[in-house]
Amino acid sequence: MKEALIDWFVVNLGGKVSKEFIVFLISMVPILELRGGLLAAGPAILDVAKWQAIPICIIGNLIPIPFILLLITKIFDWMKGTKKLRPMVEKLEAKAMSKSGRIEKYEFWGLVLFVGIPLPGTGAWTGSLIAALLGIRFRKAFPAIVLGVLIAAFIMTILSYTVIGGILG
């Protein structure tokens, strides 16, 4: 699914906007985030220089996070007040909370690892949602998410530019 979304951005925006802007947009999108941005930026797809791609992906991934941490519970409460949106919100909350065990137990470091280790269903968006639903304060959650994004950037840079780039690039 991630590959199809990355391909959609590359095909539909390629030639219309810069490669760097495509990478920035991919990094902001839930599910794809920094991981998808660095994969797209790597030599196998868009071939954006590593020194450009890393800060672009980090900034793109972090831009939505304060809004999620500060506003998502209010937005969800409003959405739950509507008949049509309530089931969707409850499903999103249940899915996020099903992954909240380590974050709830270890808070800061649990959130860092949840965001930083690139596994399916983890990342800054989901980590922010879980932190907001658990009531973790912004001043604790945001630095943990930033640190997690930096760890994910390190891991994904190695995968995108060294491993995948070495094989396909």
From TrEMBL:
Pfam families: Sm_multidrug_ex (PF06695). Keywords: Membrane, Transmembrane, Transmembrane helix. InterPro entries: Sm_multidrug_ex (IPR009577). The keyword Transmembrane applies. The chain crosses the membrane at residues 21-41, 53-76, 108-136, 142-168. This is Putative membrane protein. It comes from Faecalicatena orotica.
